[in-house]
Amino acid sequence: MAEQIQVTRSLFDEVMVPNYAPAKMIPVKGEGSRVWDQDGREYVDFAGGIAVSSLGHCHPAMVSALTEQAGKLWHLSNVLTNEPALRLASKLVQQTFAEKVFFANSGAEANEAAFKLARRWALEVHGEHKHEIISFSKSFHGRTFFTVTVGGQASYSDGFGPKPGAVLHAEFNNLDSVKAFISERTCAVVLEPIQGEGGIIPATQEFLDGVRALCDQHQALLVMDEVQTGVGRTGSLYAYMNYQVQPDILTTAKSLGGGFPIGAMLTTTEIAKYLKVGTHGTTYGGNPLACAVAEAVIDTINTPEVLQGVLAKEQLFRQRLAAINEQYQVFSEVRGKGMLLGAVLNDKYQGRARDFFLAAADHGLMALVAGVNVVRFAPSLVITEQDIQDGMDRFEKAVAQVVNAA
Ligand SMILES: Cc1ncc(COP(=O)(O)O)c(C=O)c1O
Fold first, then answer.
1. Any ligand 1 atom below 6 A from CB of 227
2. pLDDT tens, 226-273?
3. CA dist., res. 177 & res. 165, Å (int)
4. Ligand 1 center to 340 CA (angstroms)
5. Distance between CA atoms of residues 176 and 170, nearest Å
6. Which atom of ligand 1 is nearest to the CA of 261?
7. Which of 19, 139, 141 to mutate to test the pocket of ligand 1 (most atoms within 8 A of CB)?
8. Is there a contact between 105 and 262 (Cβ–Cβ < 8 Å)?
9. How would you class 21 by CB atoms within 10 Å of its CB: exposed for 0-12, middle for 13-18, buried for 19 or more?
10. Distance (Å, whole) CA 364 – CA 49
């Protein structure tokens, strides 16, 4: 008989590579926006597995899509195609600017594909000189070596030897800084419509309009990383729709699988054609289980009720945060859109987002940080009003704890 392993948090330190520092408790069950740990303690989930659990935990539509597919077919590789992948790709094409889809397994891999495609397109259409990628300080695009180098925090890419070259970092929401870099050598400008990890910083309309115009002027592709903002999180299926600024390539992951790993790169036929047979690939991309779940996620989220509900829930979050702030004066502003919100700490609490996050956990609330000055909320898009109210009651206690300890 297989050995029964006693699972405790200290086992993590014994058997896991130490690149993460998870919380002390170990969750064992989730339902909707509630989670329970090994001791039966219950938490309200405002973290959503970092903007992933778009339908909460164990949503019936996802459970049924997964279990139905699990009894049919699990894996083929891309030597063969499969029905769930083609259904999901068709829906993404129908609902967005895109005409072609490439499936991957994570946000980083979707971005890796996007950056490689932009480079290949530029090489073939314009020549070798056109290879520079402009991205932005504080941006985050994943942890593969190319994507982390394109990301705007050098501390994440330093210390691994020579980096992929020809990557320039401009300042987000500063069009002049893009103008200073963009030239005939630029193959792509890469941005998040709302910078997530960087601190929930929405692009201004003027900035996105300006970047689109600069890309057109210099024949560069506009790549939007919607890994964190996509699949209804901002009240539209994709955040570019809020701005009415169309990208040439879009990446999506996180909420797309609602907890099952999947990523995708979307683009036009004209650009897609440069990823010819053999240029790029991944064994698991378009896996039937992942695609069956993602199809259920898209079908459930892409309805007027759910998308409008996201904006109504945002209002409730904002009201509760404003009331907490009136009493305790901890935030300078609440940024973001829909179910991707950041409460920005004021001067008095600079650098202390983690204290609020830890206090929230003490009171039974799972929240997130985005940098050291922003408490981030990225819950399920279908979180109930009761769960929001209960979570905010707990957050209020957490804020009181931090303020009173100061
Ligand atoms: C905007 C953005 N892009 C890419 C990624 C990387 O996604 P993954 O962790 O699935 O590789 C993230 C993850 O936080 C993200 O927020």
1. yes
2. 999 999 999 999 999 999 999 999 999 999 999 999 999 999 999 999
3. 19
4. 14
5. 9
6. 10
7. 141
8. yes
9. exposed
10. 15
